[in-house]
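Molecular record:
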Amino acid sequence: MTIAEISNKPISIIKNSTISDAIKMLLNTKISRLIVNDGGKHVGIITEKDIGLFLFSETTKRGLEEIPVTEIMKPIEFVEENVTPKNAAKIMIEKGISSLSIGSNQEVKAIVTKSDLVNYFARRLPEKNKVVDFMTHNYESTHTAAPLYKVVRKMLEKKISRIIVKNQQEEPVGIISFRDLFRISIELGSEDDFSGTNFENVRRGFLSEDGFGDISLARDVMTKGLITIKFNEDLAEACNVLLENNVSGLVVLDGNNTIAGIISKSDVAKALAS
């Protein structure tokens, strides 16, 4: 099988769009990347993680609707359509990217993502590996009462896109991802005023100890509950759970039902590449 058989048509956004436009499109379509289109030519790619890392570390006074997608878009990585899923996984891991494009330097005919590789693994490689074989044992956590600026700061420092939230009894009760932060940024962006400040200052306040980042707590932003999988489950089953819930990572539980780590789409790609 080649990646051409598991690829999908890309969803694009026009070049003069803003980060605000991109976030809304990502949330509405429930995807994690967009191809940037300039008059029919595909000139770059913008991902959920790229936006997250930029948005919450960028410190200018510009609002979301003033920052063009071209400012943070990345070059498109093209490959031949006869590349195998295994080799596609290797390329993604080596280059630290989450998708590959089929086509020419001017046109993306199809795109293959880590989600497509996860789907391939689920269908073609059942009973090949256990979750424990490829899970990431380390994970980051915060507490429900932690100010948002501390949560975002940790995510940026660790370069992670999700963090587990625990209550005072150290019980995991939720998770915060870039998608949660995008959602609240758009919700605030629809307001004309928030605590006497305009939206660009609210957005900057994610990292501010005296702004929005201190007013909001982790529990105000988190997605309640955790999607879990046992450490000894078939990795293909973990792939199915990832796809069914449209998430990029699952919390792995050990034999005592305590958190043992995370299994992500990136971990599945590593399994496929191996």
